[in-house]
Automatic annotation (TrEMBL):
SUPFAM superfamilies to which the protein is assigned, alphabetical: Periplasmic binding protein-like II, Winged helix' DNA-binding domain
Listed PROSITE patterns: HTH_LYSR (PS50931)
Record Pfam families: HTH_1, LysR_substrate
Protein name from the UniProt record: HTH lysR-type domain-containing protein
UniProt KW DNA-binding keyword: yes
Stored InterPro entries: HTH-type_LysR_regulators (IPR050950), LysR_HTH_N (IPR000847), LysR_subst-bd (IPR005119), WH-like_DNA-bd_sf (IPR036388), WH_DNA-bd_sf (IPR036390)
Sorted UniProt keywords: DNA-binding, Transcription, Transcription regulation
Domain HTH lysR-type as annotated: residue spans: 8-65
Family named by the database record: Belongs to the LysR transcriptional regulatory family.
Gene Ontology molecular function: any one: DNA binding
Length: 211
């Protein structure tokens, strides 16, 4: 590898910080679970990458050079930022904290979703949930354009590369006059409904499309 392509890495910085803390290769190696030869090679590699000596070693003492003193606070900050970044991402991946956006049809958002969100909130109190109450077509569009992580709605005839999982069964009920010939019927077919005047939701409602 060309010299200009060499960069210090996390392993090297951890090794440097351990030696700087204990001023002893033996204690630093024990702290890092590294043998002294392996630790010495790691420090040597860091010094070669940076182009100068960071530690002064004698048979009895280890001390920081002026360059090592300069690197020390910077290395501490770099490792703190690295550790914080790792922890933040682990928390997000395990749903310990973060934000989830959901697009749901009004019928679900207003009825079943609140109970589900209460359960979710109890398990993951540090995760914020944003709910978008929109019609089915907007649910699909928001998922398709990755504006939300999850959408709840009807599966269209053409899924357009979206993945659908059956979640719940919705029940349709026909509300008719007591004088209607359909009154008192346990079930009514779509064909029978189409022969009647009915009130439908506005376009582009998925329920309207079904009718």
């Amino acid at each position: 590898m060309d010299k200009k392509d060499k960069y210090m890495n996390v392993k090297q910085l951890r090794a440097f910080l351990a030696v700087a803390q204990y001023l002893s290769f033996a204690q630093a190696g024990e702290r890092l679970n590294l043998s002294q030869p392996a630790l010495s090679l790691t420090i040597k590699s860091l010094e070669e990458d940076l182009g100068g000596q960071l530690l002064t070693r004698t048979t009895r003492n280890v001390s920081l050079t002026p360059e090592g003193e300069t690197l020390l606070p910077l290395a501490r900050q770099l490792m703190a930022d690295w550790d914080n970044t790792e922890e933040l991402l682990r928390q997000r991946f395990t749903l310990q904290m973060g934000r989830v956006s959901i697009a749901a049809m009004p019928s679900f958002a207003g009825n079943l979703l609140p109970g589900a969100l209460k359960t979710f909130r109890g398990r993951y109190p540090r995760v914020n949930v944003a709910v978008h109450d929109v019609v089915n077509e907007q649910v699909l569009e928001m998922v398709r354009h990755r504006r939300v992580e999850l959408g709840i709605g009807f599966e269209p005839e053409s899924s357009n590369a979206l993945s659908f999982t059956p979640f719940y069964m919705d029940r349709f009920v026909a509300v008719v006059s007591t004088e209607s010939p359909l009154a008192g019927r346990a079930e009514v077919s779509w064909a029978e409904l189409l022969n009647e005047d009915f009130i439908a939701l506005q376009r582009p409602s998925a329920v309207r499309l079904l009718l």
